[in-house]
Write a structure and sequence with these properties.
Structural class of chain A: alpha+beta
Strand order of the largest sheet of chain B: 4-3-5-6-11-10
Order of helices and strands of chain A: HEEEHEHEEEHHEHEHEHEEE
CATH architecture of the largest domain in chain B: 3-Layer(aba) Sandwich
Number of domains of chain B: 2
Largest sheet of chain B: 6 strands, mixed
Number of strands of chain A: 13
Strand content of chain A: 15-25%
CATH topology of the largest domain in chain A: Phosphoribosyl-aminoimidazole Synthetase, Chain A, domain 2
Largest sheet of chain A: 7 strands, mixed
Number of domains of chain A: 2
Shape of chain A: globular
Helix content of chain A: 25-40%
Strand order of the largest sheet of chain A: 8-10-7-11-9-12-13
Largest interface: A-B, 33 and 53 residues
Oligomer: heterodimer
CATH class of the largest domain in chain A: Alpha Beta
CATH architecture of the largest domain in chain A: Alpha-Beta Complex
Amino acid sequence: MSDPIGIDPSDWVCPLPLRETKRIVIGHGGGGILSEELIENLFLPAFGSAGGPARDSALLDVVGGRIAVTTDSYVVNPLFFPGGNIGDLAINGTINDLAMSGAQPLGLTAGFIIEEGLELEVLGVIAQTMGKAAAEAGVGIVTGDTKVVGKGGADGLFVNTAGVGVVPDGLRIGPEQARPGDHVIVSGNLGEHGVAIMSVRDGIDFGTTVITDSAPLHRLVAAMLSAVADPNVVHTLRDPTRGGLVAATVEIARTAGIGIELDEGRIPVPDTVASACSFLGLDPLQVANEGKLVAFVDPAHSEAVLDAMRSLPEGAGAVIIGRAVEEHPGMVVGRTPFGTTRVIERELGEQLPRIC
Amino acid sequence: MKYLDEFRDPVAAKTLVDKIHQRATRTWTIMEVCGGQTHSIIRNGIDQLLDGAVEFIHGPGCPVCVTPLEMIDRALEIASRDDVIFCSFGDMLRVPGSHQDLFSVRARGGDVRIVYSPLDATRVAAENPDKEVVFFGVGFETTAPANAMSVLHAQRLGLTNFSVLVSHVLVPPAMTAILSSPTNRVQGFLAAGHVCTVMGTSEYGPLVEKFGVPIVVTGFEPLDLLEGVRQVVDLLESGKAELRNAYPRAVSDAGNTVAQQALADVFSVTDRQWRGIGMIPQSGWTLSPRYAEFDAERKFGVGHLQVQESAECHAGEVLQGLLKPNQCPAFGKTCTPRTPLGATMVSSEGACAAYYQFRRLETGGAPAPTSSTAAHV
């Protein structure tokens, strides 16, 4: 569903005065003229100057409610993958972390740890993608930081984004709010981001048409919260990123002290994702998503919330996949299409592709 | 989706389940040989569907689980060397050796890489001529052809920095060992479909004749498994010992003859230790002498490493079908995926891990918190 931000590196012209190098050198992080040029000529044109005049910290106007704060670091390898790159991932991911508390984002920070030798053009494309993603989400990148480390000190580029948002007074969304009877909703197809990344990872690279689902979800959340008069019919929101749907639901079951039953036949997994996972020996329910959410909603209002979700492209595929129960607290149980049950549990670490 | 959805159809599954229950006059004890089949049976609850008609005994067909401890230790020793890039299939990385696993070696600076194909390891060797590149060649007849190809490919490229740590195992000798055991309870087999895709079906006729057991070559999707079980139950109820092929879309009688030729060229049959079971004569492949230059065991002089298994681990009895995983005193207590005593708790195809992952609702025991997130709540 996501509209990938299409920047063709071959069309992009680096706005930086090309002095003696086309690559990042240690001096770009030294606080001198090279640093200033990097900010003035590469980052600011890409991001705009949402934070107003340059100063050590950005100032944001707040009206009522509580402040939501989040931070996330992005170390994805490779930097570019089908449908996106580390830049839009860093913007959308942090917006989504804010949105899962019911917050509407006020502003983002961007921190870069750059490995010496990274091509300026690559950094430029990523910065432009970030600026475009932030503009499309209607959120400013209000302050930032750049460090350069020596060759081998980082894997090309690490990006950290922090976000600040406001949760309206009286809104009580959180994992502890999920309760027996709640309907479990996912906003659309699962597993696309993880499969897109794996398809271009060194040593695996297989051909696929799957692209990342990376997308900001704050507008979807706003629509869900205004679906009925009382926004608190939405009890819990979670974006199923690393560890996928399994990690998200298991954590909610443990935090809320509830059991969760998922109807495996209703969980939306596209054929392309299912076949890639089958081929690699992975569980699509444990594969990462970057533009989907899981919601626990009062069953009396779940249809209204679903209607509101389906009115937006990022929620067009929303479906009810299960419910919270009083039995087996802390445990997620899957009902298979064959009428049998199984425990759904997280992996110890990352999923490991099977031998055969 | 072609070749997946049609074999996961709940309505067709119900029909097969009903047929099996109608035909079975008692509970038959059937062993599925392959770990992939075990995973699918437990994940989809096929054992629940057939309760009363079939008791499944989970066979020794998980390559991760049966790779002997000393072979893991040899891998760890080689992977710890500064001059080595060690390439392995993913699920071997978490298998405990005597003191550590390959993940720990990597965390200490060892260059351990997950590859999907042994041919990726030859590519790594070509790209890193100043390093020794070693591939951990484990698995049954299924994975062996690609491993053989990597040796032939390395020879063609003239790579002198590529070698394979070979620990291949063979299915028919393991089935012979199980059937010859005085404690054997297995009355019929689901033979491993992918193994037969490579090797064909001819090796199983003599087992049917000698031991008088039905053997049905079976696939991995729910309908494949149910059809395999239906045929075994039908043969058992008829008192017939026959070899049948319930996976004809992948398995021909002759198998993949090109692969078989490569295997015969590159490997030679040897006695092999099976983790938890012990020595089974003529049950493995090792590199044949003419490819000795690609033998990592020889190149790095690690053949002397011999070790003892943990006495607390009953994986051997599980792999022989004498014990259900949840009947082991250590199951879910001292032995979990986080602290595995044996390899059957490591791989997703291992019977103990499959029970731990999917079956705690029946086997009891609430999940212990395994993450820092859970510890906070």
